[in-house]
User: Fold these one by one.
Assistant:
Number 1:
Amino acid sequence: MGRWLRIPLLLGLLLAVVVAGLVDRSDGGVTSSFVRNAKKAIDMPIDSDVFRVPPGYNAPQQVHITQGNHDGSAMIVSWVTEAEPGSSKVLYGTDSNKLIFSAEGKHTRYEFYNYTSGYIHHCTIRKLKHDTKYYYAVGIGHTVRKFWFTTPPKVGPDVPYTFGLIGDLGQSYDSNSTLTHYEANPKGQAVLFVGDLSYADNYPNHDNVRWDTWGRFVERSTAYQPWIWTAGNHEIDFAPEIGETVPFKPFIHRYHVPYRSSGSTAPFWYSIKRASAYIIVLASYSAYGKYTPQYKWLEEELPKVNRSETPWLIVLMHSPWYNSYNYHYMEGESMRVMYEQWFVQNKVDVVFAGHVHAYERSHRVSNIAYNIVNGKCKPVRDESAPVYITIGDGGNLEGLASNMSEPQPSYSAFREASFGHAVFEIKNRTHAYYTWHRNQDGDAVAADSMWFYNRYWKSADEIPAV
Ligand SMILES: [Fe+2]
């Protein structure tokens, strides 16, 4: 080949390399090549400012709120006092200077190996007006602390509402960036949290002091907007080697959820309605096989969802069903086999999971044709199927999952190993705008986005994401 012919060839080759470096378009979707910070995620030291105990005698700490009943007209207010029980009363009202209502809660505490918890208070305040800003005070009689929240609008099909999405948060410096980044986004009205809260179980004897530090770290958000809790594997705290054999002990004492109001018999699976969304929380670490309580509950629950009232059907779970990273690979598979058919039949819009410390979004796919003899065991495009999103990228100390299966499977639309959070912005019964925000960017930047068309009201293919 002549010298002058080789130059365009080399230029072409160079261009191909540059393009491949930007995105690797294999047969599935996009594997982002964004160069993230490769430093190890390290937990913030115990004397960090974000863990500071609030000043004052027996001051309430670790304040958090969550939805208190099925339709969002109640709120559970929780906090911890250390020196003595003090009052479990919450004063509240719509005028910050006149908290004219009060509700009485209860306190509890637990022991875990050589640790004894503080006094953990839970108080449900009911009959709240929708779409109203309430002020509330806790610590009555000792050090009073005041916070506020806004109740959700009345449930209805075209009510706009914006959820934040965070998973696998932990308490590292990266966790702090994720929370700060979420707070910088003014749109989020409530957080759908997909499990793995404190990672206290990574410490010797599951040092439960790290449950306390976590509660104080997230208070700046959880005291002001409800976080909807999902139990992850780091909530199990099963440690028979130190005599701790009751699973989920710290989690169920500290984080109450309104499971009874949806007919559930355990706090690990339940549902709530919020604005135009129906949210079903499932338990990856409770029995889900046929005849189990969770199975029976879900079987009865799905047909109850009235899409004329709550068009958006959202499912939260910890362990993802569709995951093309080489971490926790296929751990969600047996639950997928049990329930995927139901999700397609009931046109679930989106499933959010965590567990894998990275980000991934699937196409609308299902894998329900297999019956042991027909060999049909590949995911196929399916307009009735949910989009599966893995958002386990909160930033905990275990670090990023960066090793992916190659080539990118055809069900996977976009994946990137960076820490971040997402926002699901419901506009009306047909449209929702979804964005994922990596921590390295400003809060207005979306590293992945998609317009969702509601599966019940507008079952057309969505606009392909960038
Ligand atoms: Fe996990």
Note: Confidence is low (pLDDT under 50) at residues 1-26.
Number 2:
Amino acid sequence: MDVLIAGTSFQDKIDHDINIEPKDVMPDEYRTHLIRQISQHAHSEVIGMQPEGNWITRAPSLRAKQILLAKIQDEGGHGLYLYSAAETLGISRDEMIRQLHEGKARYSNIFNYPALTWADIGAIGWLVDGAAIVNQVSLQKTSYGPYARAMVRICKEESFHQRQGYEIMAHMMDGTADQKQMAQDAVNRWWWPALMMFGPHDSDSPHSGAAFRWKIKNKSNDELRRKFIDKTVPQAEVIGLRIPDPDLKWNEMKQSYDHGKINWEEFRQVINGNGPCNRQRMQHHVKYHEEGRWVREAAEAYKNRLKQSN
Ligand SMILES: [Fe+2]
Ligand SMILES: [Fe+2]
């Protein structure tokens, strides 16, 4: 008798919404897909610390400095949860970092843009973390257990990040004409890159088919992008910021916004290493990874000594 019992095979578990765990049998393609996605996500969290780290010493008040420091530390923590989740799939953190330094692994394009003014710190929290949350909320239900659980924790912190960014923007929009102008300028520069964070349109998205079948993904790039726009436009209106898209229009039938054309040529340029800060971001990461070598060696030596004395 050919009866399928829930949870007996890989696809059967997926179909019954049972998480796949590290020791479960899984197709090589599923493993490879997840390693690529989770390591890219981890690298993004860590590289994302750079544009903001640049502003710690220039934060306009002690309160702002404390909040920014806490937020950047959170991002480092997110990187660590995610490297650990990827390690359960059989790749080491060293190997992931090597792939990053050799240009074989990517990180989110958005972090190749510079944070030019204090308003950029607001725009990053509000728009970049805001876009990240939309994506990450849907990943809380992803099929790989360690990734899904990391997301639950990360999402709680991301909503604080989004609010701190929005608070900075609201504060500046309540200020002088120069401050308002600075806030608007930051939105003008970050809006489109934030939309690009969701990746290519569904019709041009090469990895989506399998990702849906395996329930790694449960919402398409365009669906997530639309969700982000619908949630963010009213927030901009409340504080008097203009979204820099002349074609942005409420669509009564869809109950959602239609947006203008995204400049995918810019996206390709940045992804291929020609964004304003690609080289700088990678040089910085390599430099501090090398400078931290003695810490890793010392930790390893200490671990070995403990082992010997036991
Ligand atoms: Fe994060
Ligand atoms: Fe964040």
Note: The chain has a mean pLDDT of 94.
